[in-house]
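Figure 3 (text version): C-alpha cells given as input.
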C-alpha cells in the first residue's frame, strides 16, 4: 500500500501533467488520451493551396476585368461609330485613288482591284505608307500593265498624290487619337475598377474552398478571421464600405484583389444588391440571378465526408455514377462590432433574423440558378449570435 506521501506526490504529478496538457492542447484535449482524436489545428482547416498561386490568379483576373472595362469604353456607341466613319473615309479615298490609277478601259469593270487597293491602304496609311498598285495586282494574279494607266497626265498624277497625302494625314491623326484613346480608356477603366473594389462591387473569383459570411456593418469575428486565414478562403459581405477601409488597405494588394462584397442595410432580398437585374414580367428569376455579378463557384463548396468513411458519396441509380457530396457553407454574424466583448447586455443586433433569412435564401437561389450546386450538394447555414440576447424576428 502506498504511503500518504506517495499518493500526494502522484496527485501533484497528475495535476501538473493535466496543466501542461491544457496549455499545450487546449481545454478540450485535457482528458483525451488518444491524441489521434484531437481536432486538427486551424492551419489545416482548409485544403492546402499555394497562396502565391492564389494571389497570381487573383491579379490575372483583376487585369482581365480591367481590360474588359477598357474594351467596353473603347467600343461605346459614339467611339465605335466614329471609328467606323473614319475607316470608311479612308477606304473611300483609297477607292477613288485606285479609280484614277486604272486604264480608261478598266475603270468601270475592275471593282475587285478598287476594293482590294482601298482595303490594303487602310492600316498602311497610318504610317504614311502606300502599297504599290503593281504589287496588289500581282497578288491578285493579274497583269499590272493591262490595268494601270501609264500615260496619266500630270494633273491626274497630282490628284493621286493629293489623295495619298489626305489619306495618310487623316489616317495618321486617327491612329494617334486611337492610341491616346486606348491609354485613357485603360486608365479610366483602372479608376473605375478601383472605385468598384472600394465599394464592394467587383466580382470575386478564387480557387478552393470558400465560406460566405455576412458580417453586417462590422464584425470582430471577421476581422480575426482575416488576420488568421487571409481573404482567399472566405467571402465577406459588409453593409458599409467606409467601415472596412482598413481591410481594403491591408489585403487588396494595392486595390487589385477584391476583398469583400457590399450589401446595403435591409437590401439582402433585392436582386440588384447582388449585381442582378430587377425582376419583371419579361425576365425569369433563374435568368436574372444566373447573370448576376455575384457569382458562386462550384469549387467553393466543401467536400462532405461520411461517418462511415464512405467519403460522403452517393450513387446515382440512373447513371450508376458515384458522386461526392459537397456543402456550401454560409455564415452570418449578428454580433455588434465593438460591443461583441462588452459586459453589458446588447439590445440591438447588427444583423436581424429577417436580414439573415433573406441573405441565406438569396445565396441559395443564386447558387441554384448558376448551377453551382450538384444534385446531392447541400447548403449549411450558421448564425453567430449571443444566445442570452433577444433577437427580434418581426
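Below: residues designed for each position.
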Amino acid at each position: 500500500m502506498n504511503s500518504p506521501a506517495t499518493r500526494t506526490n502522484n496527485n501533484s504529478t497528475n495535476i501538473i501533467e493535466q496543466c501542461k496538457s491544457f496549455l499545450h492542447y487546449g481545454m478540450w484535449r485535457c482528458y483525451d488520451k488518444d491524441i489521434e482524436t484531437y481536432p486538427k489545428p486551424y492551419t489545416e482547416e482548409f485544403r492546402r493551396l499555394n497562396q502565391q498561386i492564389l494571389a497570381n490568379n487573383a491579379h490575372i483576373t483583376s487585369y482581365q476585368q480591367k481590360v474588359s472595362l477598357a474594351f467596353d469604353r473603347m467600343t461605346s456607341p459614339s467611339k465605335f461609330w466614329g471609328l467606323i466613319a473614319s475607316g470608311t473615309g479612308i477606304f473611300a479615298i483609297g477607292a477613288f485613288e485606285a479609280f484614277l490609277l486604272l486604264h480608261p478601259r478598266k475603270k468601270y469593270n475592275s471593282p475587285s482591284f478598287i476594293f482590294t487597293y482601298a482595303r490594303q491602304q487602310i492600316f498602311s496609311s497610318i504610317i504614311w505608307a502606300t502599297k504599290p498598285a503593281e504589287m496588289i495586282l500581282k497578288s491578285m494574279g493579274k497583269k499590272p500593265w493591262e490595268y494601270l494607266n501609264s500615260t496619266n497626265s500630270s494633273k491626274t498624277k497630282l490628284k493621286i498624290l493629293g489623295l495619298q497625302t489626305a489619306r495618310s494625314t487623316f489616317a495618321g491623326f486617327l491612329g494617334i487619337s486611337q492610341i491616346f484613346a486606348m491609354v485613357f480608356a485603360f486608365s479610366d477603366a483602372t479608376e473605375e475598377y478601383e472605385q468598384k473594389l472600394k465599394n464592394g462591387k467587383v466580382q470575386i473569383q478564387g480557387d478552393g474552398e470558400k465560406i460566405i459570411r455576412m458580417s453586417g456593418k462590422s464584425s470582430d469575428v471577421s476581422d480575426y478571421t482575416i488576420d488568421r486565414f487571409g481573404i482567399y478562403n472566405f467571402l465577406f459581405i459588409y453593409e458599409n464600405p467606409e467601415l472596412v477601409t482598413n481591410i481594403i488597405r491591408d489585403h487588396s494588394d494595392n486595390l487589385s484583389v477584391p476583398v469583400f462584397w457590399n450589401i446595403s442595410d435591409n437590401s439582402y432580398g433585392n436582386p440588384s444588391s447582388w449585381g442582378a437585374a430587377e425582376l419583371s414580367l419579361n425576365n425569369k428569376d433563374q435568368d436574372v440571378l444566373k447573370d448576376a455579378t455575384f457569382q458562386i463557384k462550384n469549387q467553393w463548396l466543401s467536400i462532405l465526408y461520411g461517418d462511415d468513411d464512405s467519403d460522403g458519396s452517393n450513387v446515382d441509380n440512373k447513371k450508376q455514377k458515384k458522386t461526392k457530396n459537397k456543402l456550401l457553407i454560409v455564415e452570418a454574424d449578428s454580433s455588434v462590432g465593438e460591443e461583441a466583448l462588452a459586459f453589458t447586455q446588447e439590445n440591438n443586433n447588427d444583423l436581424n433574423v429577417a436580414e439573415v433569412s433573406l441573405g441565406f435564401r438569396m445565396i441559395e437561389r443564386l447558387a441554384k440558378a448558376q448551377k453551382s450546386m450538384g444534385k446531392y450538394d447541400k447548403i449549411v447555414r450558421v448564425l453567430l449570435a449571443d444566445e442570452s440576447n433577444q433577437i427580434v424576428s418581426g
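The first strand starts at residue 211 and ends at 214.
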